[in-house]
């Protein structure tokens, strides 16, 4: 198996940039491989009465964190394709890759949370259309990153040789992470075609292994090597509520089962994303047991 990596989802439901920065710097100090932000405007999955909680934006936080950090990779898990035109997003991501010195992991998905779109006045097409839009967007973004005179005319998006210079530092382009909450087959098929990394949110080892089997099948159908796509899992861990051996043993046992199911990159969401003690315990006691 390829080397296993560990990333951390940073706090965004805060009003203090300093808090986000401090957690990011601690992750780098403790040896985590990557830090991540969600692309949401607010916590639309919570009841409406909680929608007034603070929530900082992904794509304006990332450049600041790129300057604050030195070696850790950083990315979006995942960018909502519905929020921005792909040509603009390609330019934004290029700039971030340059600011970070080539440390961007570019996560993107079809978009979710209808309430978030409704309140911000952003159209929310059907599942089928959103995935079709994502397919076109990926083609546009890759062309913007790799071609001197990119041209694309699709059903939803068009570009006519827009300048996009300089190009990203990473070649041929920043790694593309395609993420899915449900792991629908249409998304898995897109991952087989475009992704450098396929990410699934939550799920059991059994359901994860089944999604990876489907991904392998699609890769074989289009003539792509399944090993060319890394497999990642965004899950939630709770380390610091009870700092006892049993909790750590259960966590290690579960994550080993996920590794056996095919996970190569763990993206960790701690129950309290500002809990620096949990970050330390996981880095010092869990990661060594998994490597």
CATH architecture: Alpha-Beta Barrel
**Going by CATH, what is the homologous superfamily?**
Luciferase-like domain
CA gyration radius, whole angstroms:
19 Å
How many domains? The number is: 1
**Termini separation:** 11 Å
Runs with pLDDT <50, length 5+? none
Q: What summary fits the major beta sheet?
A: 8 strands, parallel, barrel
Helix content: 40-55%
Give the overall silhouette: globular
What is the count of β-strands? 11
Under CATH, the topology can be stated as TIM Barrel
Give the class-level CATH name.
Alpha Beta
Count of DSSP-assigned helices: 9
Structural commentary:
- The longest helix has 20 residues.
- This protein has one domain: TIM Barrel (Alpha-Beta Barrel).
- It is built from nine helices and eleven strands.
- It has an eight-stranded parallel beta barrel, surrounded by five helices.
- The model has no long low-confidence stretch (mean pLDDT 95).
- It is globular and about 60 Å long.
- Helix 8 links the parallel strand 10 and strand 11.
- Helix 6 packs across helix 7 and helix 8 packs across helix 9.
- Helices cover 43% and strands 18% of the residues.
- With 291 residues, the chain is an alpha/beta fold.
